[in-house]
Amino acid sequence: MYFCVITILKMQTEFYKYQGTGNDFVMIDNRTNFFPKDDVKLIEHLCDRRFGIGADGLILLENDTDTDFRMVYYNSDGNQSSMCGNGGRCLVAFAKDLQLIESQTVFIATDGLHHATISEDGIVSLQMKSVDTLKIAPEYVFLDTGSPHHVQMVSNLEHFNVKDTGAKIRYSDLYGKAGSNVNFVEQISENTFAIRTYERGVEDETLSCGTGATAAAIAMNSLGKTHSNSIQLHVQGGKLEVSFEKNEGEFTNVFLKGPAQFVFKGTITW
What we know:
By secondary structure, the chain is an alpha+beta fold.
């Protein structure tokens, strides 16, 4: 009689948890390229708030030949996605904690190069992509700030049904199969706005969205709701600031600024 012994090999890895105004991320140092980047189910599991670590997304920090590091971002559904502003800010804080950088950095992401600075108290100012094209419709503005964003103004934002209304717009014929992030904005003062965001890939409202805050600031300026080039955004998880230069409808030197904080670290086996 013969017996067959099957050995199941498991991998254990160290992870870090960071958050930027409530937008939280699992961070993994992947400079040795050990992480199975095409394993959608694994990434989804790691981001699961009940059965995994829990996060809005997962970010890999990788080596890059021309910059300080490379950012690879995944939504919580396990799929690699476009740029994440708060994730980029948190990755800068992670890189500093790894002693890869000091107070300044240049890194590469899916939408190109990003310059950033980080202060001693953890405030990260991240340069976002320039914006030269906006679609201004009667009820909304659409633009790409590294990720696609639908921006529309509403009243009584505090009690607005972000999840259901956001999902309808995200999956509507307006944006097709790819969909869009959806932001709802209410003006507080001349240069201050409240914003709530439905994020594709998370398929729910998040406490904050960096590319969404950037999109909202540019959209409000384009609509003439504010003439300021430094705009305060109140998100569900705190406050962000977006600044830019505007010349003949083009927005350049766009910066997203706010806190990025380490939460905890641990190991997980799969």
